[in-house]
Amino acid sequence: MGEPPFRGYHDIGGLPGGPIQQDEHPFADWQKLSEAIRGALEQKDRCVSLDEIRRAFESFGEPLYETLGFYERRAEALTLLLDEKGLVDRAEVLARMDALAAGRGQRVDHAAKTVMEAK
């Protein structure tokens, strides 16, 4: 038999994944809002599609993909797509994140994708 087909870092289908975490946890408000925005943009004039979001995931590269959680990936993909389409400027999104964090006494490390207490 030949070599197995190419498998991207994001394609884990059929691979052992370890134990499945079965405890429930509530969704954070930003996760609900992100999904609502994504759903609205999918419906409204088809600004984005699920296939485009998948393509954006696959363009992250393994380090970023592995660093982000499910909803973080979706939010990052949505921001990337809206910036590509000229609908939202990524720099404006990052500036708004900084302003919101500062209002809470926090700062955002965009490179590390973390929020921490401001010094």
Describe the structure.
The protein is mainly alpha-helical and 119 residues long. The protein folds into 2 domains: 60 residues, no CATH class; 31 residues, no CATH class. Helices cover 50% and strands 7% of the residues. It is built from 5 helices and 2 strands. A hairpin with a 4-residue loop joins strand 1 and strand 2. Helix 1 packs across helix 4.
Quick tags:
119 residues; mainly alpha; two-stranded antiparallel ribbon; 5 helices
Topology:
Blueprint: H1 29-43, H2 50-59, H3 62-67, H4 70-84, H5 90-103, E1 106-109, E2 114-117
Antiparallel strand pairs: 1-2
Helix pairs in contact: 1-4, 2-4
Describe what is shown at a glance.
By secondary structure, the protein is mostly helical.
Q: Distance N terminus to C terminus?
A: 59 Å
Strand content: 5-15%
Overall mean pLDDT stands at 82
What is the rounded Rg? 17 Å
User: How would you classify the helix and strand content by structural class?
Assistant: mainly alpha
Strand order of the largest sheet: 1-2
Question: What is the string of SSEs from the N terminus onward?
Answer: HHHHHEE
Give the tally of structural domains.
Answer: 2
